[in-house]
Amino acid sequence: FEAPYLQFFLLIKKNRFFTFNDKMSNKTFGFINDTVSQIDFLLLKYKLNKQNEMFYLGDRNSINIGKWSHQIAAAFNKNTPISIPYFIAKLLSYFGDFLGCFNIKIPLTSFRFKNMTEDQIIDTSKINNLLQNKRYSHEKNISETINWIQKERLK
């Protein structure tokens, strides 16, 4: 649990994360407890129906990272991330690239901006239909992650 997820949580915790209107992407994530449950099920409880059967692992539903950042901020008891106009965020990402030429690193680059604005949704319905409701909610996943961050004293 390192970059980019730990950094994402810590930026929100420090009130240094911002969103840009309705252009934030939707993504399929895989919370560790869910992924372990899926692997456990496939290895120990599921009988393959055909050779080379493929399953994509991940959370049942994708989530908008803007909405997710608001949920994380609430769980940290922090202010909701501010929203800035899309074009300003895009300009800042290019400025981040420029600063990178001088070994000055800031969290927003054009690579990260693209990642934050392009959907990455994986169809996990096959595994999730087999597991039915034996999954964690996004809220529970956030709570457990924050508890782990605090337990590990990660800044």
Q: Care to describe what's here?
A:
This protein is mainly α and 155 residues long. It is 50% helix and 5% strand. A two-stranded parallel sheet has the order 1-4. The chain has a two-stranded antiparallel ribbon with strand order 2-3. The radius of gyration is 18 Å and the shape is globular.
> How many β-strand stretches?
4
The helix/strand order is: HEEHEHEHHHH
Distance between the termini: 14 Å
Secondary-structure-based class equals: mainly alpha
Uncertain residue ranges: none
The fraction of residues in strands falls at 5-15%
Helix content: 40-55%
What would you report as the Rg, rounded to the nearest angstrom? 18 Å
* Main sheet properties: 2 strands, parallel
Q: What characteristic shape results from the CA principal axes?
A: globular
Secondary-structure map:
Layout: H1 5-13, E1 18-19, E2 26-27, H2 32-45, E3 63-64, H3 65-75, E4 82-83, H4 86-100, H5 110-117, H6 125-131, H7 138-151
Parallel strand pairs: 1-4
Antiparallel strand pairs: 2-3
Helix pairs in contact: 3-7, 4-5
Which structural traits does this protein have?
single chain, 155 residues, mainly alpha, two-stranded parallel ribbon, 7 helices, 4 strands, globular
